[in-house]
Specification:
By secondary structure, the chain is mainly beta. 0% of the residues lie in helices and 50% in strands. Strands 2, 4, 5, 6, 9, 10 and 11 form a seven-stranded mixed beta sheet that branches. Strand 7 and strand 8 form a beta hairpin. The model has no long low-confidence stretch (mean pLDDT 96).
């Protein structure tokens, strides 16, 4: 089974940018980013299908960009114009077939990387 490892999280001021990464140990299909803030449920953020189609939650649309480097088996999330409400643990996940906002359909998860945005 493929393994996922996130990196690149950290602390940034509101309005700043951060890029987080997710390295996969092997081939993946649809890849997604989720986030979970303290005391809240896990929330879908963005997804990229094996064909390269991307989708975003309304809360991040126009600010975040998902991409992948297939040669490196690495997924990225470029986060711009960050807001304090973006503070959360960010997780990458993979599933076969197409993207979904339903976390239960993803079979492999990384351990997460913390992103903290201060005002």
């Amino acid at each position: 089974q493929v393994q996922l490892m996130e990196s690149g999280g950290g602390s940034v001021q509101a309005g700043g940018s951060l890029r987080i990464s997710c390295a996969a140990s092997g081939k993946t299909y649809s890849m997604a980013w989720f986030r979970q803030a303290a005391g809240k449920e896990r929330e879908w953020v963005s997804c990229i299908s094996s064909g390269g189609a991307t989708s975003y939650a309304d809360s991040v649309k126009g600010r975040f960009i998902i991409s992948q480097d297939n040669a490196k088996n690495t997924l990225y999330l470029q986060m711009n114009s960050l807001k304090p409400e973006d503070t959360a643990m960010y997780f990458c996940a993979t599933k076969i077939w197409g993207c979904s906002i339903n976390s239960a359909l993803y079979n492999t998860w990384g351990q997460g990387t913390q992103v903290t945005v201060s005002s």
